[in-house]
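User: Quick sanity check before I run a bigger batch. Here is a single chain. Can you write out its predicted 3D structure?
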Amino acid sequence: MKINKSKYAAALLFALLPLLIFGCHKNNTETKAGEITKSTQTPQQKTAVKIKHLNSSNREYIKDKTIAVFLGHGFNDEETVSRFSRLLNLNYGLNTPDSQGLIKVLVYPDDFMVGGKARLSSLYHKLEDDRLAGLITFGAPEGLCDVIARLEDLSIKKQQELLDALKKEEETKDALSSSQSSQESTPPIEEKVLARTYPVFSYFQQDDSLGSESTADFVLDYTPKTSELDNERSDSIPDFDSTLLLMNSVDQMINLRAPLSQDKNLLNFVQKLVGKQKTVSYYNDYETGLKSINHFIFE
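Assistant: Done. Predicted structure follows.
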């Protein structure tokens, strides 16, 4: 029997038509779904590079926490602020009114203008509601150490309020169980000296040295203080990459979870932050000749 090829081709096309239509429809639907998924992603869903590689313990620790980066003298120019912000946003995410990243960048004096004047005291109000995992300052102006001290007092106050609440809860439990002689009372909560719960690193400050030393884990300067003309020194640091210091500092704060101990290991810790760029040494007070335990320099 002779087959009519034209009729056979038409019949085959008719049979395959539903499959072709369905396949096109499926591909079109998948494409649109992909476009919708991408368009509805928020900045928070796009995980920052370094955050993405943290272990589960560190990711849990920094959840809802903030590391504040203060940029002052020598670090508040447009180019430096932009460079620091880009790197921090790429690796950790920025904490802004529009995004919920880890890092909150604060530029002095631009972010501290109140009534046309720069008010350092406003730093307290900018950070008082944050759960700080750390504070890093570059080029701290005079008086910043006083505000940092207030934030430290706030940290201690919050801890004390929590301890008081726990004590009250335990006292209530003991009162309810006091009639049951067979049940031992809950051991009292151990009293301890409270301190701030987060590390503070101070770099290239122009604040009071003793005040900075007392409110920071350590202070690092790039030239020794030899006279009262110190504040007139150049802000430029030759052959030094401050972005490396910044990134190393944030990485360490994520791991630290507490202030550093004031001991002989502190020098080595600061040297690792600086890297091989410079050799870090202890700062000697030019008036007293005394060596500070947490103040360092490099030349």
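The chain has a mean pLDDT of 82.

User: Great, the batch can go ahead then.
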